[in-house]
Structure formats: structure tokens, C-alpha cells
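Worked Example 4.2. Consider the chain below.
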Amino acid sequence: MPVPGFQDLMLPFLQICGDGKERTVPEIGEIIARQLQLSEVDLQETMSSGQRKFYNRVAWVKSYFGKACLLDFPSRGKFTITQRGLDLLKLNLQSIRVKTLNQFSEFEEFHKKRNLVESNERNINTVIQDEIDQVTPEEQLENAYQDLRSQLAADLLETILKNPPDFFEQLVVDLLVAMGYGGSRKDAGQALGKTGDGGIDGIIKEDKLGLDIIYLQAKRYGVDNVVPSREVRDFTGSLEGHGAQKGVLITTSSFTKDGIEFTKRLQQKKIVLIDGAKLTQLMIDNNIGVSTSATYTIKKIDIDYFDID
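Applying the procedure from the previous section yields the following C-alpha cells:
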């Protein structure tokens, strides 16, 4: 099963704490995981930051309960339930949600600072807001980042296709050099030649010393002009004529399933297929055709700084 939503972990979290014992986030997480019969695969699911999603959500439940004064923190990394937390459990609620915590003034003050909709929109967006609160603030930021990145990738591909073939040639050369292939920009530019279909091909160095070579083709196709498997096979066959065992085939469109499967079955040669979606992601990762609009640094308490012992 997928990792439960942020709010879905609240009730089992507080119920476990109901025995009054000191607990830790890993301990609570292990118990909830057993109760919900989460698989090891579920527990290993990570965010882009590398943190495990399930335990990140458990940690945020702890944080929210702390803001609502449902938990007390007697020592570093440990917590116990408060009388307020016990009183909430006595209500035998079917679930605990963010709106449940809003009854407590301490939490309401904290939560209103991060409301994502204007007051006159709240009734319309109740369902949307509830879905937002199912994930942690870190995940909200990560999701927003991925949305912005996806939109940027789409804009990049559209811009590439609006520019002339000469621009595509320059783009490929710049990207290869930024990724550490082809030697200098001058070397890479001289090694690659134009083709009749608005693309380029040629031999590039895999490293600056030229100890190994890669045969490359780049095809500037419209989004709907899928590269047929025949062209992938032809590309593979042409490696022999260029004395290469490795090849990179780039397109602004996409490849057929047959073409992709064909490259996976190759034994003696290594072929990498880069479609339009992958091309734009590589451009973003290597700062080709993009610039930084804003940077947000996420900081947390440095516990060691406050550890006087």
C-alpha cells in the first residue's frame, strides 16, 4: 500500500503514546508500520531530499502535536503524551486531522501562518486544502518544485522547436561539454556535423583525453514525430562503421517501445536514448538555457549547538 497521508498517521500516533511511556519517532514509526502492514518497499520510499517519506511524515506529526501541546518533550529526541493529549483520546475520535488541532489556540496560531488560501476562498477549496494537509510542508515545497520544473521543461522543449536547426546543434554541443563529454566546446563543435534532417551526428570524446569515443546522433523532430525503431537499429548498426561501442541518440520527440526494448537487449554495445523529456531535464540539471530565478534554503534547529552537556 502507498505511504499513508500525513493526517492519516495522527490518530495511531497519539494512540500509541496513550500508555504514557517515553517514545521516539523511529519507535512510533515501527509500531505504526506494523499496524498498517506496510511493506519494506513502502518504508524505503524516499523524497527527492533522500529522506524516507514515511518517517518524515511521522516526524511532522510529532511536530504538529507539539505545537498543539499534545506532547511534552522531557529529553532530546523523546516525548510523552500530555493531559491534553489523553483528553483528546478519551473522545474516541474516528480520526485526527489538522482541523481537529485547530481547536487549540497554540496550534491555531501556528497553523494560520501557513494557510495557503485566502479566507474568502476557504469554503470553495476545503477539499483541496484537506489534500494539501495530507503531506508535510517539506513535501508541499518539493511538489511545488517538481511542478515548476515540469513546466520549465515543457517551455524549454517548445522554445527549442521554435528555433532554427543551427540553434539545436549549438544546444547539443553546449550540453555535452557541460556534462563533461567532447573535450572543449571547440573540439565538440568540430567533431559533430550536420545531417540532412536538421540534426547532427559525429564522434565525440567520452573523456578529455579521448581514451574512449561515443558515436552521437541528434534529431530535431516535432513532438508528434516519434523516432521509429528502424532508425534506432540503423543507428546501432552505424556504430561499427565509426569504430565505436557506445552511442547516444538524442531526439526532441520520443522513441517507440520497440526501439527502447531493442537497446536493452544489446550485448556488445551500449546505446543511450535521450528523448525530449530527458533532454530538457538534462538541460535544467546542467544549466543550459536556464537561469536561477530564486533559491530557498531550508534550515532546521542545530541540536548540538544547544546541547550544553
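Residues 163-285 form a domain with the Dna-directed Rna Polymerases I, Ii, And Iii 27 Kd Polypeptide; Chain: A; domain 1 fold (CATH 3.40.1340.10). The beta strands are 71-75, 78-81, 192-194, 200-205, 213-219, 246-251, 270-274. Compare this with Example 4.1 before moving on.
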